[in-house]
Amino acid sequence: xxxxxxxxxxxxxxxxxxxxxxxxxxxxxxxxxxxxxxxxxxxxxxxxxxxxxxxxxxxxxxxxxxxxxxxxxxxxxxxxxxxxxxxxxxxxxxxxxxxxxxxxxxxxxxxxxxxxxxxxxxxxxxxxxxxxxxxxxxxxxxxxxxxxxxxxxxxxxxxxxxxxxxxxxxxxxxxxxxxxxxxxxxxxxxxxxxxxxxxxxxxxxxxxxxxxxxxxxxxxxxxxxxxxxxxxxxxxxxxxxxxxxxxxxxxxxxxxxxxxxxxxxxxxxxxxxxxxxxxxxxxxxxxxxxxxxxxxxxx
Length: 299
Prior knowledge:
The protein is mainly alpha-helical and 299 residues long. It is built from twelve helices and three strands; from the N terminus they run ααααααααβββαααα. The protein has a three-stranded antiparallel beta sheet with strand order 1-2-3, with helices on one face. A hairpin with a 2-residue loop joins β2 and β3 (185-188). The longest helix has 31 residues, at 221-251.
């Protein structure tokens, strides 16, 4: 064999090649399941979050210390095994018999990423993957903590804000807890329509932006808090507008339009609008960050 023929064989002996193959395989499995269950919103956000993770790893691939330890390798193998076992234990989900939301699918990106990092570099080497793990954490875990563990439901507040929007624009309505009644129809604001998912997505997007495009003039904790608050507020307000539109469509006895904006492609449009608004806001901050403060004029 010549050197060109031996190159692929030598590459397979490199630990980084195997680790990369494992990571890519886990990502593909995760995205494929989201596509299978038709969770388009989370599929799109997952791609948006995995891309910067891969970019960060690729940029520092030559600097990574790939020396693991027995404990780290064991914990990492357990996490990856748990990921695979969870996937294999959900035939009803894969056959489309359950709703698209599953808290385990929200946890899997972080847990699988943590598992690969532990196998690659051990417990002491986790600090090398701080940024990547933060991004994967915000991909789904905040929503699971708020919705499934803390059981926080903002549906009544969402209903109030949407009702206020309708009242302010001249609609006659009656608000009872999470029910909005208009002449001709009514809607109920469920937990899934409260805007919490949109808020957590944009919160994660703010973390991605701060990591991938750091700001020098807005790098204080207060600035980061305000950026995260803007992301949360944007996600909530845009969803409240969507709920108000749902109420109008329900009252107009137009089921096709209601279904389109509720569960069809129309629901994704509002998500894109929220992402676009935050993106423009962060681009504005980047432009401001590029403007150097003028030197003081000597008198």
